[in-house]
Amino acid sequence: MENLQAGTVQTLKVDREVPFGYFLTNGREDVLLHNNEVGEGFDPEQPQTVFLYQDHQGRLSATMTIPTIQIGTYDWVDVVEVKGRFGVFVNIGIKKDVLVSKDDLPEILELWPEAGDRLYCTLKTDKKGRLFGELASEGVIREIAEVATEADFNKDVTGTAYRLLKVGTFIVTEENYLGFIHESQRKREPRLGEKVEGRIIDVKEDGSVNISLLGRSHEAMGDDAKAIFAYLESRGGAMPYWDKSQPEDIKARFNMSKAAFKRALGKLMKEGMVYQEDGWTYKKGV
């Protein structure tokens, strides 16, 4: 018989009633289900399914509120408090918040999540059996990923930063697309867990996307010109398309007719934003 462990869901029998609640047992260990943690439909004659956690005194306790985040299961949780010495506390759906240790957070305090930010987490215990939140690994994030298609190109998206690197930020969009924001496509580095809004500037073969947080260049230009210019930016300022490209190639990449492509490209050239050379189009200044 396994020991009772915080962060897990257990089905236990009621052993005895006390003035402040009920002690539940697995036949070897007891745990308190406080009166304020008793849910509707409680019947002391029946086994009770409960979630185990430590109360504010560090004692193992039970609640009939079953959170979606448990040891071995993941979900998005809201950051509710930041404690510089310890880390950040997240709300997992029960009355006691759980700490995500500073050891699992960015070294730079300014990049820590703030209250209201969201983290994709599971739960873990340390050697003393204390319950902590644990950020999802890249592999776990990829398990929830959806595949973007070319139809998503230039689409506005909202996402949450889940991994921070010097070269850029990884996010999960509301559609569960995995996105990367290169440092050149943002004015500042987002916090871990921060919600950001941007646009898709490239859809990669694996279905992940590149995203820009920068304002759309030259808002006065038409939508077709915006899409072309955004794609050009995503490729570092050079693309193998020009006004003599094949209609089917233009349709496949930009989802527009050759006539529309030529009009939009002509507008960009007239405004001095791009130029063509040897079958390629280049952003001016590149």
From TrEMBL:
Domain of life: Bacteria
Pfam families according to UniProt: CvfB_1st, CvfB_2nd, S1_2, WHD_CvfB
Domain Conserved virulence factor B third S1: 142-213
Domain Conserved virulence factor B first S1 positions: 7-64
Conserved virulence factor B second S1 domain boundaries: 74-134
Signal peptide: none
InterPro entries: CvfB_fam, CvfB_S1_2nd, CvfB_S1_3rd, CvfB_S1_st, CvfB_WH, NA-bd_OB-fold, WH-like_DNA-bd_sf
Residue intervals of the Conserved virulence factor B-like winged helix domain: 227-282
Assigned protein family: Belongs to the CvfB family.
Protein name, entry field: S1 motif domain-containing protein
Organism field: Scopulibacillus darangshiensis
